[in-house]
């Protein structure tokens, strides 16, 4: 009998970081597909005769099944019951199927730009082409959220007791390169080729992501052969009974509300920011998404920095308040009609990048201070579910309000007229959300004082 601690594959730095890079690559592809049409709104209006409501329907469909079919709850259970290897492959396949349907709709292989369908829930008349594009994106949205929680669990499996915060930060940073790339270069590619080809290129990345997951599973199987611990033994299994405990916690609700208000001002900005740049700041169609792409780019560098400040110095609740204040300034500036200088837009997206680094770097690591470790998995799945209400509702609301407050503009654009949308009334939606985010962040600080969660304390004991 030996006293030496048994070495496993995860004790090899090279092996665990290789696993992380492979897992992150698939998330990179997923984030890429999430934003693939974000900078293409003006091109879709000009070449496909779509209007803002069509764009809003397609982009909001991301959260449709997650919210209304409770898919985040269901995939949480699947991950719990069938484990990481099953979930990597099934989530990647769902992403590919959804991506392929969206591509087929844009290519005109399913649905038609001439046949219409009425959606009673939001009283919209859509072409069947738009309907199927949205349907595909709704399927994809289930896959990418499923992949997200699976990858978090896999990263925890490899890095527990090691550089877990750094690993999670790196994973999100690599994924965000996936938001950056299509925003920065998507419109140029779509103008050089066309919208369906741009989508197809990213579907190929999703297929490569599936291949990556297959490779990861070989490593995962090897690791499982070495350790007795099973997938389900990491304390993050989804349980309905846990949900009851979680929803009775006011602090948890404040985090979930902050998440939905905050992310609703950022992810939907990726969808409409490029169009705002064209219509308000006079940026050319080819480079519509370039300034908004600086937001995810900046977060790649800043999130780990703010995360380590929180780790060492604390002040988590104050960091979230500061992020929310910056958001009010940013969306206030986008709202004001007389600020149309591209230089102002540049500094504003930099500020948004700082806000988008501050809040998540403090918000996600604060959840374990409010929710016991045993219920953490369920808590994250539930927060993502609440977050998806915003990812569904806000892009749809923005598209509909934009059409209603700019009658005839989409048709004029499709006819080739040089005419701009007036975004001012529409942008009120973002301004209101930022104020709600600030109020929630302030209430969270109060609740922290009352309950002593320790959000203002460092994560690492000095
Ligand atoms: C970590 C966090 N992830 C999420 O919010 C996911 N629910 C949504 C992923 C959306 C993909 N564009 C994040 O990305 O900050």
Automatic annotation (TrEMBL):
Its main location: membrane. Keywords: Lysosome, Membrane, Transmembrane, Transmembrane helix, Transport. It holds the Pfam family MFS_1. One of its GO terms (cellular component) is lysosomal membrane. The chain crosses the membrane at residues 17-37, 57-79, 91-110, 130-152, 164-185, 197-216, 243-267, 287-307, 319-339, 345-367, 379-402, 427-444. Lysosomal dipeptide uniporter that selectively exports lysine, arginine or histidine-containing dipeptides with a net positive charge from the lysosome lumen into the cytosol. Could play a role in a specific type of protein O-glycosylation indirectly regulating macrophages migration and tissue invasion. Also essential for liver homeostasis. This is Lysosomal dipeptide transporter MFSD1. It comes from Maribellus luteus.
